[in-house]
Amino acid sequence: MIVSFKLETDPAILVHKARYSLDRYQHHLVIGNLLSTRKWEVVFVSPGRPDHWVRVPSAAREAASHRRDAGAAAAGRQGPTQAQAQAQGDEHVDEKPMDPAWLPDGEPEVEIESLIIPAVEALHREHIKASAASK
């Protein structure tokens, strides 16, 4: 299974460029991410499958958000409320990138790589099974 990576700055073209890479280089999977949200989410783009967004779980985002809100309150700033952040997160079910404005400052408590590796492993197992079945 051949995997490549695509880092973009423009959310409007990330998936398009990932699909272009699939077609051009005939890879099995392109893992795309945006510079602004790279530590919080990636998108898996592969032939014959819908795009799949892998994101740091809500609990980890909320914990980081609480830290940011406490820091913002101390600095006299106000960020989005937890309800606003949750509602905004629900909009991103599985089709588009998150808005960087809704991301907490700082690092997520869970590294995105810890979510990418098992997801790639599962796709690799499926790829092996499909290859074995076609022989």
Automatic annotation (TrEMBL):
Q: Please note every region of biased composition (Low complexity).
A: 71-88
- The lineage's top-level taxon is Eukaryota
Name the segments for region: Disordered: 58-105
User: Which Gene3D superfamilies does this UniProt record tie to the protein?
Assistant: CoaB-like
State where composition is biased (Basic and acidic residues). 89-98
Q: What is this protein called?
A: DNA/pantothenate metabolism flavoprotein C-terminal domain-containing protein
